[in-house]
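User: Predict the structure for this protein chain, please.
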Amino acid sequence: MSMNCLLCGVGGQGTVLASRLIAYAAMQKGMEVRTAETIGMAQRGGCVVSHVRTGEEIHSSLIPLGSADVIIAFEPAEAVRCLPYLKEGGFMIVNDKAIMPVTSSLDGSEYTAEKMLDFLKGKVFNLRIINGDEVCRTCGSPKALNIALLGAAAVTGVLELTVEEMKDAIRARVPEKYLEMNMKAFEACM
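Assistant: Here is the predicted structure, written as C-alpha cells:
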C-alpha cells in the first residue's frame, strides 16, 4: 500500500507541523515515509507545500503531478494552484477562508475565496470544504486549523492511518498546554 498526501497553505498556518504529524503517525505504524517541503517566503505569507509519501520503495519524496491521493489545503487559492497534483478520484479537504497573497495586496487585484471554491467544486468530486473560522472559534484558537484539517482527512481513511493513530501522533508531538485545544479541533471536523 502507498499514500501520497500534499498539504498546501501559506506561511504561519501550520502546514509543516501537519505534515510532520502524518509522517510521525505513519512511522509509528511501521510504514516507510518520505517528506519534503517547498517553502516560498513563508514568513511573509508565501506559499508552503509539504509532500508526505508512504509505501514500499519510495524513491522520491516529491509527489509527481496527478498522483496525490489527498490534498489538504489550508487556503483556497493554494488548493487551486496545487490541483494538478491530485489524482483522478482523489480527495481534497480545503479551508474556506482566503488569505490574500502579498502580490494581490500590492497590485490591488481582487481575490475572493468564493471564486476559488466554485472552481474546485467543478473539478473535484471528493471535495470537503471546512469552515475554518467556525472550527477555530469552537476550539478557541486560530492555531488549531491545521489539526482540524487533519481530522477531516483522517476520517476519510485515505491517509491509511486510523483516527486513533493520528490522535496518538498529536498526543506525542503537540505540547501538553495545547493538547486539549488541538484534540477538540481534530474531532470538530470528523
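The mean pLDDT is 90.
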